[in-house]
Structure formats: C-alpha cells, structure tokens
Amino acid sequence: MALYLLYESAAGYACFQAQGFDEIGHKTEEVGNSVTNLDRFGKVVKLQAFCPFDSALDALNQCNAVSEGHVTDGLRSFLELTLPKVRQSKKPKFSLGVAEPKLASHIYEVTKIPCESNEFVLELLRGIRLHFDKFLGNLKHADLDKAQLGLGHSYSRAKVKFNVNRVDNMVIQAISHLDLLDKNINSSSMRLREVYSWHFPELVKIVNDYYRYAKVANYVENKLELSDDKLSGLTEIVGDEDTAKEIVEAAKASMGQDLSPVDLVIVKQHTQCVIKAVEFRKKLCDYLVAKMNDIAPNLTALIGEVVGARLISHAGSLTNLAKCPSSTLQILGAEKALFRALKSKGNTPKYGLIFHSSFIGRASARKKGPMARYLANKCSIASRIDCFLEKNTTAFGEKLREQVQQRLDFYDKGVAPCKNIDMMKLAIENAERKDTEMEVDKTSAKPILEKCKKRKYKAADDVEPTPEEAKRVKEKKKQRKGEQEPEPYQAADKANGPNEFEAEEATAKKKRRESE
C-alpha cells in the first residue's frame, strides 16, 4: 500500500510519497540514522507536489485552521488534485499520513481519504522537516526561516489578542499589586509614626488614621513653627476645627525633642511617599472595580470586586475558574488545610477565599458551611455566564445575589426562597432588554412573584409529618370538636331546665354531704 505524507510548512502545503520503509522496525536506531542521512532518506521519500500560500494572511488562516483541526477549501483542492481518486465501490490502495489525529479524522470525513497518524508517520515527518529546504530547490533556507518567524509572530499575536477588553491578566496583576501596596503602606506608616513621634509624640493619640497622620506631619513639619495661622489648613486636613485646635495646643506643650533641618527633610519625604502610595491605592481600586465590571460583571454583582478578583487570580484566569466545579471553588485558597486534613484524616475546611464575603459573615456559626456551599454554587454559575456569554450584563448576578439573600433569610427566619428557574426567567427577561439596568415591569414579574408567595413557609428545622401522624392529628381534632360542641337534644334540655330525676339526685347528694 502506497503511503503519502502531508507536511504543513510556513511556505505552503507539501505532499510526499514514501516507499520501501518497513513499519515493523521503524523504532530502531538504524531507521533514525537513515532519517538524519539525506542520501538514504531522499531515495525513499520523494516530493510529489507543493502548493505555496498566496500571502501572509492566507498562511495565518491556514495555520489557524490546521491547529483547530479543520480542512480549508485550499487544502481540500490540493489533496484531491495530488492524491489518486477515491471510489466508493473499491477500497483505496493508499493512505495519507498526517501529524495531527484531529485533522486526519476531519480529512477522512470531508474527502473520504484514508488517513493515519502514528509514530512511524511522525518519524518520517521529522525527516521531512529536517531536509525540507533540500527537497525544494528554489527555496533557500534563509527564506524558509523568515517565513517561519513571521508566521509564528502573527499566529501568537492573533491568539493573545482575542479580546482586549476582556483580558483578565490585568485583574490578576491589579489584585496582586493591591495586596503588595497594603503591606508597604502599613509598614511605611508605622515607620513614619515611630520616627515622627520622637519630635511630636502627642499627635499619635489625636490623629489615628495613618493617611491623615501623614498629611498632618507633612503640613506641620516642625512643631515649633506651628501657630494659629495654620489653623485653617489643619481644619481642611483633619475635617474638624476642635481637633485642629487640639493639635496646635499639643504642639505648644509637646515633650518631644527637636530635629535638625536634615532630619525634617527626610521626614517630609517619608510623609510624601506614604501620601502618594495611599492615593495610588485609591486609583488602583477604582481601576479594579471598572475592570471587573467589564470582565466578570455577574460575579462582581454577586460577591464583590475584591473577592471576585481574588478567585480569578487564584484560579489563574476566568476560564479556569469557570471550569472549576462548585466544590473546588468553595475551598479555593484553603489547599494547605485541605491536604493537612486529608493527611491527618481530620475535618476538611468548609470555605476558602469566599469566607471574605459578607454573606458568610452574616450567617450563624452552624449555617456557615451550608451557606458557603450555596454561595460557591452561585459563584460557579456566575463565572460560567461571564466566561461564555457575549453580552455584558449584570442581570444574572443581581438575581443570583437575591437568591443568596433569600437563602440567608431561610436559615434565619425560615422563609422559603423562590425557585432557581423562576429567578432565571426574570434574569433572562431583564437581560434581553436594551437597558440592562432597568427594573423588570410589574406585569411581567407578577406571576412569578405570586408563585413565590403561594409557597408555604416552613421553619428551617421542621420535618414534614408522616401520613400516619397526620391521620392521628385529624382524629384528635375531631374528638376535641365533638367534646366541645353539645348535641341538639342536650342543648334543648339545658334550655328547658333540670328534669325531676335530676332534681331528686341533686337533693340526695346534698343530704349525703351534710351527713358526712
């Protein structure tokens, strides 16, 4: 059986014919040496046809199609012209060797050409790749290298630049930078307080906030020069005139030591560094909020910007987070505790990064575990919607947040929440509108809300009675009603008064009591 080989190069498609190779011994060292030797390899593998690409854009499109396992029109026409025709009635006497199994299966579906992809074919394609410029006499090795380099750059650029607005790499870098800034600001502010307290120790007790403390220290500089003229500036910084007067009075009676002009310059630079770091942190937080609303709006609406960004950062990307099941998302960030518990056969952790959500904090101690499991389930749904939905909407995240709030009320008050299908219908109706921030009309929301109201409210710890218990309760109620409601003849006798026999019995009872 003849064997043809399809080789995809940066310059174009090439078809080779291999004859005289023994598949049984293709793994031996002799076959490997024959592949590296051009004289021996050129006698067995010969070039059948070559189809160059029209342009760099055509080469990029063909490369993308091959990587995804699709057969383009150009590749299909090249194979039909080069290879023998395949008849439906007869079995073909040749096969096509392809490097990618996915592409081989698609070629067989489209053209009915028998394809194979194994180690023997890969070994032959390795030799073709090594001596490809020698098979094509007009193509120079330098030209082939330039074509490979250009195609590699354009292919990588196209893969990376799929959607600029939804690249989650900047969110990962922003949340990491935010954590680093928090550590630096805390350490720098503590160092500033320690240094400036030698000069003005009373200021620490008056101003507690480190940002205001740094601004006051930058404004005051030397406490000996502080007077009532700077009272207006201190009031703007502190926000309270009484506090500003207290600072001025404390500076006049301060017990701190004096600092040299050089030391005061260093302290002022230190305060400026802290102020700039705090202001940059505020800008970074605003950038993170805007970026999260673009990348994962539903996850942001459900759990918040910071917690959502930490989940994406820990998972590696939004796609990886969407692939995670809810059980994995629940303990994301608590891997050390999980493996420690598995090793020691103890209790596994109930929550990881989602513990920082406000819903977990509001739940009771007994319900924190079920609440974390329910919240992880909703976060998994929200991340998948954000990853695979083309429209940018917050309708689903808002409804998922309402569901979590209803579940929290169910744990606290026993109020049963609405069904998930009803809430998703409302979310879809809200998402289909042009303005996603508009509330759903009362007419469309009425039937679904009525369903929620009609459902019976149960306590969280109540258990439904069995049918036997229900029968007993009904019988007891009937007995109580029979005892309370008198029969008609009894009621008539009471209305008419006591009978003669009843009067005699009553007098007899009175005589007995008197005798006793």
Could you walk me through the main structural features you see in this protein, from its secondary elements to its overall organization?
The chain has helices at residues 29-36, 38-44, 56-68, 73-82, 101-111, 119-130, 132-135, 141-160, 169-196, 203-206, 210-220, 231-238, 241-252, 261-295, 297-303, 305-315, 318-323, 326-330, 335-344, 358-362, 368-388, 395-413, 420-431, 442-454, 467-484, 488-496, 500-515; strands spanning 2-8, 12-18, 45-52, 94-97, 115-116. The protein has 516 residues and is mainly α. It is flat, with a radius of gyration of 41 Å. The termini are far apart. Belongs to the NOP5/NOP56 family. Residues 295-413 form the Nop domain. This is Nucleolar protein 56.
Q: Which features characterize this protein?
A:
516 residues; mainly alpha; five-stranded mixed beta sheet; 65% helix; 5% strand; flat; NOP58/56_N; Nop_C; ribosome biogenesis
Please give a quick description of this structure.
By secondary structure, this protein is mainly alpha-helical.
List the helices and strands and how they pair.
Elements: E1 2-8, E2 12-18, H1 29-36, H2 38-44, E3 45-52, H3 56-68, H4 73-82, E4 94-97, H5 101-111, E5 115-116, H6 119-130, H7 132-135, H8 141-160, H9 169-196, H10 203-206, H11 210-220, H12 231-238, H13 241-252, H14 261-295, H15 297-303, H16 305-315, H17 318-323, H18 326-330, H19 335-344, H20 358-362, H21 368-388, H22 395-413, H23 420-431, H24 442-454, H25 467-484, H26 488-496, H27 500-515
Parallel strand pairs: 1-4, 4-5
Antiparallel strand pairs: 1-2, 2-3
GO molecular function: snoRNA binding
Domain Nop: 295-413
Region (Disordered): 456-516
